[in-house]
Amino acid sequence: MSQQQHLELLSSQKSFGGWLKRYQHSASSTGTDMIFAIYLPPKAEREAVPVLYWLSGLTCNDENFMQKAGAQRMAAELGLAIVCPDTSPRGTDLPQEHDSYDFGSGAGFYVNATQAPWDQHYRMYDYVVEELPTLIEAHFPVTDQRSISGHSMGGHGALICALKNPGRYQSVSAFAPISHPTECPWGQKAFTGYLGEDRESWKQWDACELISQAQEQLPLLVDQGDADNFLAAGQLKPEALQEACDHVSHPIVLRLQPGYDHSYFFIASFIDDHLSHHAKALKLI
Length: 285
Ligand SMILES: N[C@@H](CCC(=O)N[C@@H](CSC=O)C(=O)NCC(=O)O)C(=O)O
Fold this sequence. Notes:
- By secondary structure, this protein is of the alpha/beta class.
- It has a single domain (2-281), classed as 3-Layer(aba) Sandwich (Rossmann fold).
- The chain is built from 10 helices and 9 strands.
- The chain has a 9-stranded mixed beta sheet with strand order 1-2-3-5-4-6-7-8-9, with helices on both faces.
- The longest helix has 18 residues, at 264-281.
- 49% of the residues are buried.
- Residues 57-60, 64, 68, 101, 151-153, 262-264 line the site of ligand LAXINWYW.
- Its EC number is 3.1.2.12.
- The active site is at 152 (charge relay system), 228 (charge relay system), 262 (charge relay system).
- Keywords: Hydrolase, Serine esterase.
- One of its GO terms (biological process) is formaldehyde catabolic process.
């Protein structure tokens, strides 16, 4: 099992007194090798620390957030580890897998595919919710206190992972999440490919649908730039998330940030607020 798993260290860099490391391992959920990045704050040299899981968006891998969000300084101060998985299995060569940026490689959507040939490998939900935390908690000086956040496709991933797993995360937040994937072009393309034509089956992977059945009301923190081109294109639909929350009185703070786009410049501008949100829930401050 995971305790015996071999982790191959790919790189290691000191950062704000802690360490940023990248590892590769053989993942049973995806049946492929997977790479993840982990930032361990200085405090982890003395005691176990909680973990924030960050799920990135379309076209990303484990590196985008660690290189662009500027989260390490505050994570070091707080004593918070950060783990970034990849956004899809790699190393497979399924039909059309590498043809578009919004489906297949780099676009796993954090679901468990049910449709061939994707169902053999595209099981990113199981990977990020179960396999990766089990591995992280067995190999690193971390506690079982977890939070989750993400951007765009990864914001969708963070929301559904928290909503589907009451008690597993202490807090959740998202930047420009794909809030209502069953009703936007990105989500409809991905869900048709991974989950098939039965739209009823899609609902278990849609945050707006899951809100109404939530057994735990973790307060949602969501930031959205109002100059985000994907907002204008109808891919993100934060208003649907707000409406779904209002309908069942689910707590949400949805902030429309004037002038900000969809990029990591936007994420870097507000990452400290999100880290504070998680640190409070994790009782670090
Ligand atoms: N290439 C595409 C857009 C790709 C893009 O913007 N990806 C975002 C996430 S979008 C939703 O999941 C991203 O995070 N990119 C990586 C980065 O480091 O910025 C196009 O051209 O439209």
